[in-house]
Structure formats: C-alpha cells, structure tokens
Amino acid sequence: MNAFWWTSGHLGWGVFALAAFTGIWGLFFDLCWRLLAIRIGRLWALMTIGWMLGIGCILFGFYLAV
Amino acid sequence: MLLLIVQLIILGVLAGALILWGCYFPYPSPLIRGGLPPRKRWPETQIRNWLEMGGFQQAFLNYFYRDPERTPTPGNNILAPSDGLITSAELRDGVRYLVIALSFWDMHVQRSPASGSVIKVETKGMDFMDGEGREFAFLREKPCPVQKRIIFSTDSGEIAVRLITSLAARRIEIWVKEHEAIVRGQRIGRILLGSTVVLELPATLNISVLVGERVKAGETVVAWEMSPA
Predict the structure, then answer these.
(1) How does pLDDT run across A16-44, given as a tens digit for each residue?
(2) pTM of the prediction?
(3) Contacts of residue B15 in chain A, CB cutoff 8 Å?
(4) Checking DSSP bridges between strand B116-124 and strand B95-101, what pairing results, if any?
(5) Among A26, A48, B16, B22, which residue has the least CB neighbours within 10 Å?
(6) Cα–Cα distance measured from residue B169 to residue B192, given in angstroms and rounded to the nearest whole number
(7) What residues of chain B lie within 8 A of the CB of A19, using their CB?
(8) Could you tell me if residue A2 is inside a domain?
(9) Active site residue B166
C-alpha cells in the first residue's frame, strides 16, 4: 500500500483529496444547476471538464510531492 | 490516529450531504435551501405536490404568510391592491378591469388602492360562476372561482377590488367592514393560497402600468386621475 492510499495510520492525502473534491464538486454541480440558467448538457460538459481538471491537479500535485 | 478521525469526519459529513441531496432530489436539500432565492427554494412542482397532499413545509408557510410594511407612494394616485403580475387591463362597459396574477411566492396581503370608505363587501361563491362572471377571462381560467368583492367610494369614483381564489384553496379573509373609513395602502384582506386580484376602476382614470409589469401592493401607482385644468 503506497502513500497515496494509506500513510502513517491515516488515509493517504491523495485518496482523501480525490474523495473530498468529488463530493464537494457534486454538491457544487447541484447548486450551479439550480442557480444558473444554462442548458443541462452544457452544464454537464463544463462540470465534467472541471472535475477532470481538479482530479488532474490533485494527481499531479501528489506526483510532485512524492 | 487523530488525523484518521478528522479525515473520516470530513468524509462522513460530505457523504451525509450527498445522501441528503439524494433523498430530496429534485428539490433542494435542507443544506442549501436557505441560500436559494424563494422560487428556487420551493419550486412550483413541489408546492403543487403539497397542494395535492394537503401538507406544507413550515418554512414555506412562514414565507407565504409574511406581511411586510409598505410605504404608499405620495399623492392621490391609485395604488396596486396586491403584489403580482399585471395580466390584463381590459375595458368593458365603462369599467377598467386590471387583473393581477399572484404567484405562490408573492406576498398575499391586499391593500386599499385609495382612501375613502367601504360601500359593500360581496361574497360570491359557486353560483357566481354561472352568472355574471364567466365571460371574464380571469374567471374562465378558474375551475371553481370563489370571490370577495370590496367596493370603495373614493375621490376618484367607485372602485372595487375582487379577491379570487379557486377550488384548490377557497379561503379569503376580509379585514374591513361595510361603511368603514379606509386610508390609502391600508391592509384590506388576504387570499390564502389564492391567485388573482382584480382592480375595477372607472374608465376615466389613466392607467400607468403595462401588461406584463410586476406591481407591489400599497406601493406601485397603477392609475392616476388627470387634474382639471
């Protein structure tokens, strides 16, 4: 088990960041859907791109840190 | 160990928020409800469901029954009797029928359009739909209209305010009595979950609002009388 998943008796910061970011992003998606006058297809595309960028940043940051 | 507990608490809170979101979807979860504007906080489909079920969320009822203070615009112009959207300004037989449609999110307390006195308070129930009323578009839309009509004597002539509701919520409160003196902008009644208020004005008055405009009870000037030269 490497440091991404588990480290020093707690969850690895990599998997923790992925889970937290995905949860927050999902709730943010719901908020955007309710408040913005935007087509759902376009919103889905934007939010998916945003999620992939976020995940990419987390993975890249973890890669740099270790 | 402490870090693991903190991590699990954070993830647990997030999981709880997502479960709550899933339970309430497509309506907003209680976590975000407070931050949304009223129309988004209680979507129309949710309110119609409550109407069918006969139960309402207390927070919505508190919002619905609000009764804010209003400051009448200075002057003797005619004020809107209700919050809402002007949907028609039909002129018929010397009377201007200014129809104001209320949405679920509008304030439902009605106010006097002008100073004067109450001549009469008429109650019109089921019989009314087969008689005088049915030719009016604002009554044709109602499956079973129930109305209260308050007639005022004012300096601008005889003015009437109709409070209309339908079978779904046939409750109208009138807070003024016949022969009572009233001041401009005074509270005159409330429609509980009702939907239409009609202001009947003499044709001699000039209308200052357009169809499609939003008005506020006791504040927006809807008509004015040309002063004699």
Answers:
(1) 999 999 999 999 999 999 999 889 999 99
(2) 0.78
(3) 23
(4) unpaired
(5) B22
(6) 7
(7) 11, 14
(8) no
(9) no
Question: Which of these, B97, B153, B147, lies nearest to B122 by C-alpha position?
Answer: B147
Number of domains chain A contains: 1
The ipTM assigned to this model is 0.86
Of B1, B15, B21, the CB nearest to A30: B21
Q: Is the peptide bond before B26 cis (omega within 30 degrees of 0)?
A: yes
In a domain, A44, yes or no: yes
Parent domain of A27: 14-65
CATH code for the domain defined by B78-224? 2.70.70.10
Contact B69, B76 (CB under 8 A): no
Long-range contacts of B88-96 (CB under 8 A, 24+ apart): B88/B137, B88/B138, B88/B211, B89/B207, B89/B209, B89/B211, B90/B136, B90/B137, B91/B203, B94/B202, B94/B203, B95/B200, B95/B201, B95/B202, B95/B203, B96/B200, B96/B201, B96/B202, B96/B203, B96/B205, B96/B207, B96/B223
The residue type of B12 is G
Does some domain include residue A48?
yes
Nearest neighbour of A26 by CB, restricted to B7, B11, B18: B18
Q: Between chains, do B4 and A11 touch, taking CB under 8 Å as contact?
A: yes
pLDDT, tens digit, for every residue of B18-32? 999 999 999 999 988
Helices and strands: H and E segment counts in chain B: 6, 14
Asked if residue A54 belongs to a domain, the reply is yes
Helix (H), strand (E) at residue A23: helix A13-35
CB spacing of B18 vs A23 below 8 angstroms: yes
